[in-house]
Specification:
The chain is an all-alpha fold. The chain has 3 domains: 182 residues, Growth Hormone, Chain: A (Up-down Bundle), CATH 1.20.1250.20; 53 residues; 235 residues, MFS general substrate transporter like domains (Growth Hormone, Chain: A, Up-down Bundle). It contains 18 helices and no strands. α7 packs antiparallel against α13, α12 runs antiparallel to α13 and α12 packs parallel to α16. It is globular, with a radius of gyration of 22 Å.
């Protein structure tokens, strides 16, 4: 190995600094899930409001991703890293001090803006420092700790809630974030922004996309609170207004020829990218939607406290990490179609136990089911991402990276909102005279909602059948098609079903 290919002490130190911030952001997406039952009880908040604590964070995270590259060029990656960490930590403290569910949702949106900047900024800083010869090893060094976040998050959250209360899942970010900020301030090299060379930000696109999604989500979240349901004027106005804003965004994005929109929709003209993106959307919906349901199920139906619920959720994260470690090798050998189909089947199988579980169902059965769910979700993620990138030219990769993150997070937001509305509707239809629902009624409502979750997974089987098949032995490696083509999908894979 050449001398300049080695991971020197400076690069390892940079990786450790990045891990400090990236782990906080990754853990926060899951640590909050076990707190929703406690938050709902303290603020007497319905599910339609509680889901915004999770979905709002994901939505804010998705919306800030396309701004990151522009901001790093305009203001400097180091300065933006310090800003993102400061915003995340400051918003965390505000979340801990929230006085109502509405204030908590507002502060979670702010926290999501900071948290959304952290992962892409981490990649920018590492790619610049490592160079092409070392980037694979550096990314592995950084990604392994962040992949542990789904395991650690619910367990740590449950422990904090059990001993200190739900507010401490946010307050804990203050000392951890202060350490990350100190290390970054002392060790990150200053970089010089180049304002004159920075491309213009698509501000109008952001002003159409972000409010459009927010208003649409809000309209869906208040369906059960409205006496006329979907026929309510408020619901129709919000859903219709959101769809109109999104339609204008799509028309404008497809019509831009001088430079890509905030999300380059022309990438979806590529069949492999479109298939992968659609499946990642469903993956986000079933992953984050279920992460909203599962902690509530364990606490409200099974009668566990927050700590027990967090520990019982850890097997799903463990299964995901195992599958992520194996999927990369298997997809090169078997092709993405078979791995993704197997992953979807495992996810459905792991969800079925929850469709008939009751307060007496054994934890061992549910734990084994969560391991299967985790294996399935992990088996789907890597092949889909690899397939999306494989079919694009190199200059399209940065735009594709932003689009994939946004699509998955939007899927997570919509999935969480939809499942919350379904669960609220089931509970509202079965409660008698406004009384607190019994454990049996709760279990029945969750069973029905988990059936919808399994159905959401099953939808992915259809597009997954059209993914590229087994790799051809005589294929040329690394020969992506043009991002304008839509029929070739991926030249180095077989087309037979």
């Amino acid at each position: 190995m050449a001398e300049n290919d080695k991971l020197d002490a400076g690069l390892v130190k940079l990786g450790a600094i990045i891990v400090c911030g990236a782990f906080l952001s990754a853990m926060d997406a899951t640590i909050v899930s076990v707190s929703l039952d406690s938050v709902g009880r303290e603020f007497s908040a319905p599910l339609s409001s509680l889901q915004w604590v999770a979905a709002g964070y994901l939505l804010a995270l998705a919306m800030v991703v396309p701004v990151t590259g522009w901001a790093a060029e305009r203001f400097g990656a180091r300065r933006m890293w310090l800003f993102a960490l400061s915003l995340f930590v400051g918003a965390s403290v505000l979340c801990g001090a929230a006085w109502s569910v509405e204030s908590l949702i507002a502060f979670r949106l702010l926290q999501g803006l900071g948290g959304g900047l952290i992962p892409p900024l981490a990649q920018i800083l590492l790619v610049r420092a490592a160079g092409p010869q070392r980037i694979g090893r550096v990314m592995t060094m950084v990604s392994v700790p962040t992949q542990l976040a789904p395991i650690v998050g619910p367990s740590v959250g449950g422990l904090l809630i059990h001993d200190l209360g739900w507010r401490w899942i946010y307050y804990i970010n203050l000392p951890l974030g202060a350490v990350a900020l100190l290390f970054a301030w002392l060790a990150l090299e200053k970089d010089s922004p180049a304002p004159g060379e920075t491309p213009r930000l698509d501000v109008l696109g952001l002003l159409l996309l972000s409010p459009g999604l927010t208003v649409l989500l809000y309209g869906l979240s208040v369906v059960e609170e409205s006496p006329d349901g979907f026929g309510s004027t408020k619901v129709l106005a919000c859903v219709g207004g959101g769809l109109v804003l999104l339609a204008v965004f799509v028309a404008r994005a497809l019509g831009r020829r001088d430079r890509p929109a905030v999300v380059d929709l022309r990438l979806f003209g590529n069949r492999a990218f479109a298939l992968s993106s659609g499946l990642l959307f469903l993956l986000g919906a079933t992953l984050f939607g279920a992460m909203f349901l599962l902690p509530l199920y364990y606490q409200q139906v099974q009668g566990h406290d927050a700590l027990q619920a967090g520990l019982l959720l850890a097997p799903q994260g463990a299964g995901t990490v195992i599958a992520l470690a194996l999927a990369g090798t298997l997809v090169d050998r078997l092709g993405p179609r078979y791995i993704v189909l197997s992953g979807i089947a495992l996810t459905i199988l792991g969800t079925l136990a929850f469709t008939s579980a009751d307060p007496g169902t054994s934890d061992a059965l549910l734990t084994g089911s969560l391991v299967l769910r985790g294996l399935g979700l992990g088996a789907v993620a890597t092949p889909l991402t690899a397939t999306a990138y494989r079919s694009l030219t190199k200059d399209a990769v940065p735009r594709a990276a932003s689009a994939l993150v946004i699509v998955q997070r939007i899927g997570g937001s919509l999935g969480t909102a939809a499942l919350a509305v379904l669960l609220q509707g089931q509970l509202g239809g079965r409660a008698e005279g406004g009384a607190e629902p019994s454990p049996a009624v709760l279990a029945d409502a969750f069973n029905t909602t988990f059936w919808w979750t399994a159905g959401l997974c099953a939808l992915g089987l259809i597009p997954a059948m059209f993914l590229p098949g087994r790799p051809r032995q005589d294929a040329e490696p690394d020969a992506p098609e043009s991002d304008e083509g839509s029929s070739a999908a991926s030249a180095d894979f077989e087309r037979r079903p």
